[in-house]
Design brief:
The protein has about 100 residues and is α+β, with helices and mostly antiparallel strands. The chain is built from 2 helices and 4 strands. The termini are far apart. The relative contact order is 0.20. It binds iron/sulfur cluster (2 copies).
């Protein structure tokens, strides 16, 4: 019984350590990046805007309809949380300075 408890505790410890390593790796690889919107793919659904707690993205009405834009690039931490929310594959993380000016 004790062995099973030790095994479970070990697995939990390993899981936590792997999670921390993954977090550090993502932080390192995403350093210096910022979110970018591919207008041709965006439908303006706002899913990304609702996900981003830093209010980086906004949806505006343009000639071609609603689309997201990076309203506050300086606030983007490149966490990537919004990426999975976009079903259109319109979001990518790019090097800062590579994104085109919006607004
Ligand atoms: S989730 Fe994708 S399609 Fe929807 S507004 Fe954001 S970028 Fe555009
Ligand atoms: S990468 Fe993170 S901070 Fe940047 S827009 Fe997406 S959710 Fe917001």
């Amino acid at each position: 019984m004790k062995t099973a408890a030790y095994a479970i505790a070990g697995l939990l410890l390993l899981w936590t350590a792997l999670g921390a390593l993954r977090h550090l790796h993502l932080k390192k690889t995403r350093k210096g990046k910022v979110i970018c919107v591919d207008e041709s793919r965006c439908t303006g659904c706002r899913r990304c805007c609702r996900r981003c707690g830093r209010h980086v993205l906004e949806v505006v009405q343009g000639e071609a309809g609603a689309r997201a834009l990076v309203a506050r690039p300086d606030s983007c931490t490149a966490c990537g949380d919004c990426l999975a929310k976009c079903k259109r594959g319109a979001l990518t993380l790019v090097e800062r300075g590579e994104q085109k000016a919006e607004r």
